[in-house]
Amino acid sequence: MPEVNTEHLDEQQVQLLAEMCILIDEKDNKIGADTKKNCHLNENIDKGLLHRAFSVFLFNTENKLLLQQRSSAKITFPDCFTNTCCSHPLSHPLELEENNAIGVRRAAQRRLKAELGIPMEQVTPEEIQYLTRIHYKAKSDGIWGEHEIDYILFVQKDVTLNPDPNEIQSHCYVTQKELKQLLDKASRNEVKITPWFKLIAETFLFKWWDNLHNLNKFIDHEKIHRM
C-alpha cells in the first residue's frame, strides 16, 4: 500500500485513519477489511478498492432535514455541507452483521453520537430505516477520495444535539426550499457540498422527503444504484 505523509493533517482525524473498514465487491459481498486510510487513497481506489458506508438523513417532526458542514479538519471533503451523518460500519462483529442491515444501523447510531452528540438512547438501530444502496466514486483531492456502496438510512425524530467541533463546524435544519437554495449556491461555487449528497439530492431525496410517512414503497434492498 502507498505511503502517504499525514504529518500536516489533524491529529484526531489521523487517528481515525487506523479504523478498519469493511471491504466489499461490487455486489456488496464482504471480501475483507482494510484501514480507513487505505480505503480512501485514490491510488487504491483506482485499483478497485471498495468499502461499505452509510448516509443518514435525519428529519425532525417539522419535516426539516438536519444538515452538517464538515469541519476543516476532515481529511476528505473538508468544509463541505452534507446530509446528517456519513460514515462507515467497522470490521467487527456487531457492525458486520448483515441481517436487515443491522450492523450498518448500529454503526449509524454510534456515529450520530460521535459526530452530533445525539444520545444513543435517542436514536436506536430499530428507529433507523434502511431504504436502499448507492455505489459511487469521487475524488476529494489528488490523494484522497471515496469509493463506497452507501446504505441510505432515514430517521424522523426530534433529538438533542451536541456536535463535536473536530467533526462538524456548523449544522442546521432545512426545509426543501432552503435545501434547493443551498444546492443552487453550490452550483455557483458559493458553497461546497459533498459529491454523495449532491448525487442523492439530484436523484431520490426530494421524492423520499415528500413521503416521510410512507417510505415503505421506496424500500429496495435488492438493487444497488450505480451513480
Total number of strands: 10
The CATH superfamily is Nucleoside Triphosphate Pyrophosphohydrolase
Tell me the quaternary state: single chain
Structural class: alpha+beta
Largest beta-sheet details: 5 strands, mixed
Strand content: 25-35%
Number of helices: 8
Reported CATH architecture: Alpha-Beta Complex
What are the low-pLDDT stretches, counting only 5+ consecutive residues below 50? none
> H/E order of the elements?
HEEHHEEEEHHEEEHHHE
Shape: globular
Helix % is: 25-40%
> What's the structural domain tally?
1
Family: Belongs to the IPP isomerase type 1 family.
Enzyme class: isomerase
Function: Catalyzes the 1,3-allylic rearrangement of the homoallylic substrate isopentenyl (IPP) to its highly electrophilic allylic isomer, dimethylallyl diphosphate (DMAPP).
Cofactor: Mg(2+)
